[in-house]
Amino acid sequence: MSYIEVNNLVKDYKINVKKRGILGSMQSLLIPEYKMIRAVDDISFSIKKGEMVGFIGPNGAGKSTTVKMLTGILMPTSGNIITGGLSPHSDRKKNAARIGAVFGQRTQLWWDLPAEDTFDLLRYVYKMPEKKFKANMETFNELLGLNEFISKPVRQLSLGQRMRADIAASLIHDPEIVFFDEPTIGLDVVAKQKVRDFVRHMNKEKNITMLFTTHDMGDIEKTCDRMLIIDKGKIIYDGTPDDIKKKYAKYRTLIIDFVEKQSGIEIPGVEVCEDKGNKVQFRFIKDEVSAQELISSLTKKYEISDFTLQEADIENVIREIYEGGIKCDENLCGVC
Ligand SMILES: Nc1ncnc2c1ncn2[C@@H]1O[C@H](COP(=O)(O)OP(=O)(O)O)[C@@H](O)[C@H]1O
Ligand SMILES: [Mg+2]
């Protein structure tokens, strides 16, 4: 049974159109002009209890707006959201006790105080029994190493430390659902890995339902069983990271450096996807064209100085989907 149910969700923002120049600014002040932006455009999906779902899309795709509606911060323009039987916006108070949220670009910690003071405050806000609070803090400390920096003012923490503290703060009250909005943004590789491992651990151990928003495919591959791809406010893929890889990793790319400039090379079953004269990129389906035969037929005809054979990786696949180069496969995607 689904735990989060989203139906035909739409969010429009009304924005003030500012005219240029001093005269324009004065005109805008006196007679403001508005236009509407559709940030989320009729999306529907459901998430089961305990599922860990990655929500991926380029900047401006509508990820944060969706998360803000799911947490009850923003009211939808139209459509419905039910999370665990409640409407996040109308039942805000009840809902708040059951959810946790991390907005990567903002902190919920008190900036001038040590992080431990925020934890004490949260304990009071959520009326947590001391035993439970201590046990959770111990777990977080073990997995996130909070003790190294918990008594320093938050403004003195590194981004990675601040993010670890923020993530712990979002989970301190044992929420049933947690929304992470870009929790790895700006982190280095080691800090990213710590966050990914921790999030995965909490999902598995405590069966917390999680939605993880990111524009970093690595986050999804390492943490999520299912992913939703959003672009221009619409969901364009709903399926597993593996399926999308299996389907599109069937392509290989061969990059050949020719000694001399070549033009108009045509090989049946092989597409020239980039031609810079001396350097040409060929793309082909690996089950249909043998890379070895392709290389040997090219070396017979042309003088070659170097070559590289690349398997399609998931980042490329996603990029091509964003750019509209690949249409989703109806058999794989729950959306199209
Ligand atoms: N408060 C706002 N007022 C007006 N437009 C907004 C506001 N927040 C976001 N937008 C616009 O809505 C679209 C989606 O933004 P957002 O949900 O932040 O995308 P993402 O999180 O995927 O980067 C963008 O075009 C953005 O400029
Ligand atoms: Mg965002």
Can you walk me through this structure?
- The strands form 3 sheets. The chain has a 6-stranded mixed β-sheet with strand order 5-6-7-3-8-9, with helices on both faces.
- Helix 7 links the parallel strand 6 and strand 7.
- 35% of the residues lie in helices and 30% in strands.
- The mean pLDDT is 89.
- By secondary structure, it is of the alpha/beta class.
- The structure holds adenosine-5'-diphosphate and magnesium ion.
- The site of magnesium ion has 4 residues, from helix 2.
Describe the structure using short key phrases.
13 strands; Alpha-Beta Plaits; 336 residues; binds magnesium ion; binds adenosine-5'-diphosphate; alpha/beta; Rossmann fold; 6-stranded mixed sheet
Topology, pairings included?
Blueprint: E1 2-17, H1 21-30, E2 33-48, E3 52-56, H2 63-71, E4 78-83, H3 92-98, E5 99-103, H4 115-125, H5 130-144, H6 159-171, E6 177-181, H7 189-206, E7 209-214, H8 217-223, E8 226-231, E9 234-239, H9 241-248, E10 251-258, E11 270-275, E12 279-285, H10 291-301, E13 304-311, H11 314-322
Helix pairs in contact: 6-7
Shape annotation: globular
- Going by helix content, strand content and strand pairing, the class is alpha/beta
How many domain units? 2
Which kinds of small molecule does this entry bind, naming each only once?
adenosine-5'-diphosphate, magnesium ion
Separate helix tally:
11
Which CATH top level class of the largest domain fits?
Alpha Beta
Helical amount: 25-40%
Q: Identify the quaternary structure here.
A: single chain
| Strand residue percentage | 25-35%
Rounded to the nearest angstrom, the distance between the terminal CA atoms is: 22 Å
Number of strands: 13
Widest sheet: strand order? 5-6-7-3-8-9
How would you characterize the largest beta sheet?
A: 6 strands, mixed
The helix-strand sequence is: EHEEHEHEHHHEHEHEEHEEEHEH
Mean pLDDT: 89
CATH topology of the largest domain: Rossmann fold
CATH H-tier superfamily of the largest domain: P-loop containing nucleotide triphosphate hydrolases
* Low-pLDDT segments, ≥5 res: none
Query: Which architecture of the largest domain does the CATH hierarchy give at level 2?
Result: 3-Layer(aba) Sandwich
Question: Compute the gyration radius: what is it?
Answer: 25 Å
